[in-house]
Amino acid sequence: MSDRPDWRLDGRDWPNAAASHFVQAGGIEWHVQRKGLQGPSVVLLHGTGAATHSWRGVLPLLAEHASVLAMDLPGHGFSSTPPPAQMGLAGMAAHLGALLQAEAVRPDIIIGHSAGAAIAIRMALEGRIAPRHIISLNGALLPLGGVAGQIFSPLARALVGLPFVPWLVAWRAADRATVEKLLRETGSRLDARGLELYARLFRRPGHVAGTLAMMAAWDLPGFARDLPKLTTPITLVSALGDRTISPDTARRVQAILPAATLVDWPGLGHLAHEEAPALLASLLANIMVPA
Questions:
Q1: Is 106 helix (H, G, I), strand (E, B) or coil?
Q2: Is there a contact between 212 and 166 (Cβ–Cβ < 8 Å)?
Q3: Tag placement on the chain: N or C end, fewer CB within 10 Å?
Q4: Per-residue confidence at 38, pLDDT binned at 50, 70, 90?
Q5: Of all helices (H) and strands (E), which one includes residue 282?
Q6: What share of the chain is helix, strand, coil (3-state, %, to 5)?
Q7: Vertex 112 angle, CA 110 and 116, to 5°
């Protein structure tokens, strides 16, 4: 078995595969999905450990009224992995800037889930994008507090240095119950299709290694210091059942960015956009055409 997800095998029934293509940009071979021929330009950034499948229900809905671009982030899914030093926020922002240039996309609205929200904001802060609006879905925008914050990044850095760890995780992912338990702990309830797609990725050590490399390179304390400089209008979506990013995080961010709009989604977890894609489509429609 290849250590990276293989499009010929793992992509054989990939969600929205008809919208997929591959492109070289910024030293990365990207798996990209584009759908929708008119309307505002919308870019979707998934979170750590996910891929374009995370938007499987969202992409077709948004494409009815917008031109939508989604991609597998570097080291995730079917996109290649850059050197570890380029897996942090600054590196991700630079690589995505190169991709948007190659695809001739200037996003009007950028939607980021979890770590994807931090990347979107970093790109705006660096002037790589100038969107009219950012939507943060359960954004990982502030450092983890308490003991978790003290061990999270150091542990990831230790694990990424152990070559057997991705293979061990992939071996454990062969047990579907293990993947189901992992996803349940996010507070979300995915259907069988969603569970199978995550399991398919987690069974590939290369995807696991990319996920760990991203976690190890993350610098949220530094990012939090720059966050008050954001001038782009932003909506902070907080799923109240999220067990990965505390719903309190969005409120703390709103205290830093008083002009931010806070939206609560009761009854949903960290993967809220996968549980209720129509809810995100409705939110975007309201932002594109305010009431």
A1: coil
A2: yes
A3: C
A4: confident
A5: helix 277-288
A6: 45, 15, 40
A7: 125
β-pairing, 20-25 with 28-35?
antiparallel
Residue 41 CB: number of other CB atoms within 10 A?
Answer: 19
DSSP 156-167: HHHHHT-THHHH
* Cβ density class 238-265: b for 16+ within 10 Å, e for less: bbebbebbebebbeebbeebeebeebeb
- Tens digits of per-residue pLDDT, 49-70? 999 999 999 999 999 999 999 9
User: What global pTM score does this model have?
Assistant: 0.92
The answer to whether the CB of 78 falls within 8 A of the CB of 12 is no
- The terminus-to-terminus CA distance of the chain in angstroms comes to 52
Domains and their CATH numbers in the chain: 17-146+219-288 (3.40.50.1820)
**Cβ contacts of residue 167 below 8 Å, gap of 6+?**
3, 205
Which amino acid appears at position 149 of this protein? G
Separation of CA 188 from chain center:
16
